[in-house]
Amino acid sequence: MSKLIYVLNGPNLNLLGKRQPEIYGHETLADVEERMRKRASTLGLEIEFFQSNYEGALVEKIHEAREKADGIIINPAAYTHTSVAILDALNAFDHPVVELHISNVHKREAFRHHSFVSGRAEAVMAGFGTLGYELALEYFK
Ligand code: DQA
After folding, report:
1. Nearest to 125 by CA among 107, 106, 98
2. What's the pTM?
3. 1 has pLDDT over 90
4. Scanning 44, 45, 103, 124, which has the fewest C-beta atoms within 10 Å of its C-beta?
């Protein structure tokens, strides 16, 4: 059976392609999902792709992943820097987690340098643009 990887996206990522394209690029989240699906099928992986602007919805999706997923790729977006709830949910997930940021958060404002998720993640990616999503899939292969 192929591995199922949950790909979770936090607030404002629904605006990808429209929001600050000089930082996040011109691709939409739908473009990213389509490219990931292609790469996943080449790699023999399955993905569940999800975005929410609500912290609780992301927490509940991580709970769902406990029963179903073999790994999580998460771009928690702004919740990276604020959410103990997302960290606690990930701590209750027993498989690998990859934290992903489109931009290089370390090159940006100081408040983006701290992540609640990084201490839980097996790997952290930042600054690869939307290509990072595909590279993160390679990790699970
Ligand atoms: C982000 C970086 C975060 O600091 C920011 O709040 C986001 C997106 C990224 O993908 O680069 O919304 O996670």
Report:
1. 98
2. 0.97
3. no
4. 44
